[in-house]
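Quick one:
INPUT:
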């Protein structure tokens, strides 16, 4: 957010410098220099504005996708707990079968012991999808039929949402990174343009003997970048305090 505020402030200062430059009364060659430099820098400042807005939209989109993903992950935690419970029941049924020979049951049991619902909730975002999909894959073979209608539809829906949100967040993140890179390029161009504007106005003002007004019209770059709210003028040093004459000593009466 600090960078965003700084960009917005620099954009505002750039526009103000252009307005100030356009408002100075110049004639002859000085007027030509002023108009030429403004025609060059103003489109660059407009591109910088557009880049700021584009990066802000991309960041807002990414943040929204993160919120949606958190909601889906909460749903996934509930659905995983239901799958875990149902599969534990399926393992118990398999153990009870008199002719049990399926080693996959042992693998599933070990997996369920190692991946409890609380373990699942602590997984990273990428691993959440991997483990949910793995658990979902056991449902067809091990979920008891009587539990299927309660567990599988929710699991199917949640898995689809997790995949969709993973794709959406990956795309949103890629877009935001690209907009950040584009903003960095536009910011650097805007800084160069600002220096060009200041140099151009220095030339124009010098031609008409008004060079002393340059800082009022186009601030130095560092002040445009880091200006604070309120007055941008450097504060005047405090006046030194008047020296205080030492008071005469108070005579001490003799005892």
């Amino acid at each position: 957010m600090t960078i965003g505020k700084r960009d917005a402030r620099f954009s505002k200062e750039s526009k103000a410098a252009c307005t100030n430059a356009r408002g100075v009364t110049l004639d002859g060659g000085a007027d030509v220099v002023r108009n030429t430099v403004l025609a060059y820098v103003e489109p660059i400042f407009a591109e910088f504005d557009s880049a700021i807005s584009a990066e802000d939209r991309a960041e807002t989109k990414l943040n929204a996708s993160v919120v949606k993903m958190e909601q889906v992950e909460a749903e996934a935690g509930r659905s995983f707990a239901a799958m875990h419970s149902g599969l534990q029941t399926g393992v118990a049924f398999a153990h009870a079968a008199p002719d049990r020979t399926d080693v996959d049951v042992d693998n599933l049991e070990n997996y369920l012991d190692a991946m409890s619902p609380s373990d699942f909730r602590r997984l990273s975002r990428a691993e959440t999808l991997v483990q949910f999909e793995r658990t979902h894959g056991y449902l067809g073979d091990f979920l008891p039929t009587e539990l299927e209608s309660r567990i599988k539809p929710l699991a199917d829906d949640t898995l689809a949402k997790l995949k969709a949100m993973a794709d959406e967040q990956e795309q949103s993140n890629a877009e935001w990174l690209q907009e950040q890179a584009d903003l960095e390029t536009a910011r650097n161009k805007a800084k160069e343009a600002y220096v060009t504007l200041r140099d151009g106005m220095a030339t124009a003002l010098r031609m008409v003997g008004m060079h002393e007004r340059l800082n009022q019209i186009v601030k130095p770059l560092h002040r445009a970048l880091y200006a604070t709210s309120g007055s941008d003028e450097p504060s005047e040093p405090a006046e030194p305090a008047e020296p205080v004459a030492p008071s005469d000593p108070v005579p001490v009466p003799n005892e």
